[in-house]
């Protein structure tokens, strides 16, 4: 086979497989409303979504009440009996509390047992977006699943449909269900549905410990399975939470699903029904329906099993096996490495030191690649902050491809230089040794992610031993063998890179991860790339650099914010009632014409201490604002007592202007115990963002008041008998109309995020 023909075949193979990986890691096509009654139809579920997710409906808002009533009506129309759990939910992990209204219904099973499968989605949204993906898609999917199950045969077990409230305010509805609802004692397994975006595959990204049997049930039941135990391993070490967090903490088995495509829409007006990918809704619903039927007929007393390693491959293949095979696979990889090393030493006189030196070289290459990625991400961000038009650089695929072009050029150039220093077999073995080290490390600390390196290691060793040690021209059979043995690497790593990009973006943190993983992919493809670079090593770096330049230009041209891709920011009016001073604040990273009309052309840059907690690290553009005659939040001392140097205070907190959220903190006191509306708030040490164990709580739906409807009731037990300082900040949606200040509406290329536009009033009290 000629060199040119071999190079063309390799390039065609790589493009074909990479394209296949992208095309075949998509959710299934939506099923029309005319589908049989026992099938899940995204079109039917979408009808629900269109009704309740058109505008934001955060907890404590009138629109929230409309959505609640809509859910109750739809459940009743399905022939089920809806229930509303109205109570105060408390989540010490978030230092959060609030009045919630969970909506639930129960489909009775045939066994007569009280054991139940609980399907969960939250129906509240943030103030800035309608929540079509987060989490309207989950709600709509469960309504359609309830209809499907009602039209089919009765299941063995009860199915509980739980639509939680206050998830966005700190998992409050889930906390209330776990703490108080009588149905919780019947829960044996929970399946939760979430989203961070409005597109992409609905993936199994989290499970409970001992998930082997649950994963097997999912693998056998779901028609379009997607997910990864690596994601679960990483998620366990991240500060992210969903309702599933509280169910797992309570010891309930569970599966958690989410789609995260089009991250730009998360907690923004773009998260609307019109822009939701119905394919994602289809996969969400298929997962819910298939698991409801499978778990609904399963023995719920036998769900625990050894953890599983699981991952999906492009084309619908879902692989899962017990973690008991993790270390045998690692040992097999180590033995295979030793065998191939002996073979290389005996046939090609590759001394043992050469793969070790190659290992050191690859480690340096990986490190340099990660640093290069971090530097490029920061440089691009700086350019768009100071010189280029401001835009979305985090989710910008051309910029990522620019990085890959630079790294490919660097790798190809280094390979050409290293090949003069090392035999190609030594370079391949050095890459295999690096992979083996990753296998051992990941098997020890992230066993669910061991598959990422274990299977590619065996593939690279087999490729190295069968065709890479070639003393003569590459034959057609050898080339075919190289391509086939490269498939495990490509089928695992290409979707992995896509997933990391969707999850992390091209940021200062995500860039190094993407850069390192891309170079590891190139190292794992060493036997195949050696055959390519041996013939085309002169022009590959140049072409890669030209592509990088082209993608950089394309990234710079497509990044700027526009009507289709608006600039996200939080706008706030903050009034300190103690000092009588007020400020405008904008979270925008760069001034624009609209922001300047509010904060001026010369604002300062900093945080908003006293209005946001210490852990809220966002910096704002700040400028002075007129002090409006807004009524501040109130704290009334009901009674107090002292016992053994511990002072107990009963207080009533309220917002005269009926703001839906009140933040309460005691920055200088040591709080031993606290209750809100009779519910324990736990210790400050339990909080995820614990700042010096300072006591604080955010109370949502504050306008609903306490048990008597007149205010929030708080009991504090304080160390010492000295004065207690309380700081209250109430928060409402919208920026108040300021006399003499025309607050212009946002232009089409700007959008609110999270809380959107807020008015905050702060006041301190001493008791």
Main sheet properties: 15 strands, mixed
Q: Per DSSP, what share of the residues sits in E-state strands of 2 or more residues? A: 15-25%
Classified by CATH, the class of the largest domain is: Alpha Beta
Query: What's the helical proportion of residues?
Result: 40-55%
Q: What would you give as the CATH superfamily of the largest domain?
A: Zn peptidases
Please mark out the parts with pLDDT under 50 across 5 or more consecutive residues, or reply none: none
C-alpha Rg (nearest Å): 29 Å
Integer count of domains: 3
Fold-level CATH name of the largest domain: Aminopeptidase
Structural shape = globular
Strand tally:
22
Overall structural class, as computed from helix and strand content, comes to: alpha+beta
Q: Helical segment tally?
A: 19
CATH architecture label name of the largest domain: 3-Layer(aba) Sandwich
**Distance linking N and C termini:** 89 Å
Average predicted local confidence, pLDDT: 92
Walkthrough of the structure:
Helix content is 42%, strand content 22%. The chain has 3 domains: 3-23 and 324-558, no CATH class; 42-313, 3-Layer(aba) Sandwich (Aminopeptidase); 565-767, no CATH class. The model has no long low-confidence stretch (mean pLDDT 92). A hairpin with a 2-residue loop joins strand 17 and strand 18 (679-680). It has 19 helices and 22 strands. By secondary structure, the protein is α+β, with helices and mostly antiparallel strands. The strands form 3 sheets. The chain has a 15-stranded mixed beta sheet that branches. Strands 14-15-20-17-18 form a 5-stranded antiparallel beta sheet, with no helix packed on it. It has a two-stranded antiparallel sheet with strand order 8-9.
């Amino acid at each position: 086979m000629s060199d040119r023909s071999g190079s063309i075949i390799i390039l065609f193979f790589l493009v074909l497989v990479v394209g296949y990986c992208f095309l075949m890691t998509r959710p299934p096509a939506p099923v029309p409303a005319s589908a049989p009654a026992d099938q899940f139809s995204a079109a039917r579920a979408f009808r629900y979504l269109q009704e309740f997710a058109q505008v934001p409906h955060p907890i404590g808002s009138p629109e929230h009440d409309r959505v609640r009533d809509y859910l109750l009506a739809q459940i009743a129309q399905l022939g089920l009996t809806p229930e509303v759990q109205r109570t105060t939910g408390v989540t010490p992990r978030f230092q959060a509390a609030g009045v919630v209204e969970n909506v639930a219904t129960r489909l009775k099973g045939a066994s007569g047992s009280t054991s139940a499968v609980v399907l969960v989605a939250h129906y509240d949204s943030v103030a800035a977006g309608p929540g079509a993906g987060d989490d309207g898609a989950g709600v709509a999917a469960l309504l359609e699943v309830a209809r499907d199950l009602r039209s089919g045969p009765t299941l063995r077990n009860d199915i509980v449909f739980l639509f939680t409230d206050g998830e966005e305010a700190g998992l409050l509805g889930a906390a209330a269900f776990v703490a108080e609802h009588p149905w919780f004692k019947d829960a044996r397994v929970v399946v939760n549905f979430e989203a961070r975006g409005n597109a992409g595959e609905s993936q199994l990204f989290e499970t409970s410990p001992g998930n082997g049997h649950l994963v097997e049930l999912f693998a056998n039941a779901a028609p379009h399975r997607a997910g990864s135990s690596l994601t679960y391993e990483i998620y366990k070490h991240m500060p992210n939470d969903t309702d599933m967090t509280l169910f797992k903490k309570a010891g309930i088995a569970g599966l958690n699903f989410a789609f995260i495509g089009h991250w730009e829409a998360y907690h923004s007006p773009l998260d609307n029904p019109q822009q939701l990918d119905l394919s994602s809704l289809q996969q969400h619903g298929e997962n819910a329906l298939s698991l409801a039927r499978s778990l609904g007929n399963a023995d719920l007393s036998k769900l625990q099993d050894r953890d599983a390693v699981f991952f999906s491959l492009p084309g619908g293949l879902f692989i899962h096996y017990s973690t008991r095979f993790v270390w045998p696979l690692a040992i097999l990889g180590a033995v295979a490495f030793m065998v191939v090393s002996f073979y290389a030493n005996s046939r090609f006189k590759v001394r043992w030191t050469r793969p070790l030196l190659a290992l050191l070289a690859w480690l340096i290459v990986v490190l340099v690649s990660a640093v290069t990625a971090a530097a490029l991400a920061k440089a691009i961000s700086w350019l768009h902050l100071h010189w280029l038009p401001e835009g979305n650089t985090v989710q910008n695929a051309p910029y990522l491809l620019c990085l890959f072009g630079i790294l490919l050029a660097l790798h190809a150039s280094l390979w050409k230089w290293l090949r003069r220093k090392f035999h190609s077999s030594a370079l391949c073995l050095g890459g295999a040794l690096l992979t083996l080290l990753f296998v051992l490390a990941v098997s020890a600390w992230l066993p669910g992610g061991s598959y990422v390196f274990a299977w590619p290691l065996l593939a690279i060793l087999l490729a190295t031993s069968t065709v890479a040690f070639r003393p003569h021209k590459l034959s057609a059979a050898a080339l075919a063998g190289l391509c086939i043995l490269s498939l495990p690497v490509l089928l695992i790593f290409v979707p992995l890179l896509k997933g990391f990009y969707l999850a992390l973006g091209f940021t200062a943190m995500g860039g190094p991860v993407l850069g390192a993983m891309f170079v590891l992919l190139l190292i794992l493809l060493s036997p195949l790339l050696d055959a390519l670079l041996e013939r085309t090593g002169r022009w590959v770096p140049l072409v890669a650099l030209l592509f990088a330049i082209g993608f950089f230009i394309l990234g710079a041209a497509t990044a700027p914010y526009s009507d289709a891709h608006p600039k996200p920011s939080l706008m706030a009016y903050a009034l300190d009632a103690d000092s009588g001073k007020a400020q405008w604040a904008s979270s925008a990273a760069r001034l624009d014409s609209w922001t300047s009309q509010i904060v001026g052309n010369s604002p300062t840059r900093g945080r908003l201490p006293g209005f946001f907690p210490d852990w809220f690290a966002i910096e704002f553009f700040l400028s002075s604002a007129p002090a409006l005659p807004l009524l501040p939040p109130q704290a009334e001392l009901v009674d107090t007592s002292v016992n053994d140097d511990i002072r107990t205070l009963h207080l009533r907190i309220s917002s005269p202007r009926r703001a839906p959220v009140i933040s309460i903190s005691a920055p200088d006191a040591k709080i031993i115990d606290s209750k809100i509306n009779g519910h324990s708030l736990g210790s400050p040490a339990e909080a995820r963002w614990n700042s010096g164990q300072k006591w604080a709580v955010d109370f949502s739906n504050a306008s609903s008041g306490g048990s008597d409807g007149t205010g929030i009731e708080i009991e504090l037990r304080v160390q010492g008998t000295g004065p207690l300082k309380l700081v209250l900040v109430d928060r409402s949606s919208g920026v108040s109309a300021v006399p003499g200040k025309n607050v212009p509406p946002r232009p089409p290329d700007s959008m609110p995020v999270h809380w959107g536009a807020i008015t905050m009033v702060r006041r301190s009290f001493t008791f």
